[in-house]
Amino acid sequence: MIPPPAKPSPHQHSHSNAPHSKSSLRIALAATTAIFVVEVAGALWTNSLALLSDSAHVFMDALSFGLTYLAIVLAEKPISDSRTFGLHRLEVFAALINGATVFLIAAFIAIHAFQRLSRPQDIAALPMLAIAALGLAVNLFVIWKLHPLLGDDVNVRSAFLHALGDALASVAVVVGGGIVYFTGFQAADSIAALLVAAIIFVGVYGIFRDSVQILLEAAPKGLEKDKLIAAVEEISGSETVHDLHIWSLCSHIRSLSLHVILPQAMMKDQQKILAAVNLMMERKFNIVHTTIQIESGEE
């Protein structure tokens, strides 16, 4: 059954609450950048590897907020004749480069943490604990700022999850600092650093996996080809979909192309079918970049 005709959505990615999202992301980016600088300086002052590792994790989250902000800004810019899809893939290349940088930093910290386990060094526990607590407070503030926007944009939800992960890493550093301060067990700093480094490795793996999938033009995560075909054929009829391809331009823009072969008797309704398929793709699968070719089949 063909749904009532609907106006096809324009082929651009929109953000329903972009001004609010950008404002909150700017605040989150400024806050995480500030705590990154404080934690790096504090790590050098207190001789704490846990603080240094947490600063690397904060840097990764600042990257996430920056890329999310960049994605929203790029989505608002018009395309050009030479770049018909705009500059959305800059987000992917930036993620790869910065992911590699954070990985190397985390590896450096992990190596030194293992070395310190056998030869613990004195940590200025009280200032280290105070700076770690400040970092945790900033992470909780960022979570509070982003939480109201969770329903507006998939990228904001991703940034929110990064902030949650950073808060958990900060808890590990605070606990490590507390153990050092109250018990004098200096190795707790190295153990906390290793824990945060492990969290970073997991996050960087996700960045690399998702970025490579996008660059290889693989099907977006969570989209199954059979389900897409079934959804289209609910509108166009059984066994009418051929040559379906689905890929991502960046982390938040999906593209699709397919052929629909209709019986001659249904060709008079092809515009209604096309409009209905486009509307369904946007509402059900969040796909707004579509190329759909309708052809006539034999009776």
Blueprint of the fold:
Blueprint: H1 18-46, H2 49-76, H3 90-118, H4 125-146, H5 154-183, H6 187-215, H7 225-236, E1 241-248, E2 254-262, H8 270-285, E3 289-296
Parallel strand pairs: 2-3
Antiparallel strand pairs: 1-2
Helix pairs in contact: 1-2, 1-4, 2-3, 2-5, 2-6, 3-6, 4-5, 5-6, 7-8
Integer average pLDDT: 81
Poorly predicted tracts of residues: 1-16
Pairing-aware structural class of the strands and helices?
mainly alpha
Task: Tell me what portion of residues adopts beta-strand conformation.
Answer: 5-15%
CATH class of the largest domain: Mainly Alpha
For the biggest β-sheet, the strand order reads 1-2-3
Write down the secondary-structure element order.
Answer: HHHHHHHEEHE
Biggest sheet overview: 3 strands, mixed
Tell how many strands the DSSP assignment holds.
3
Helix share of residues?
A: 55-70%
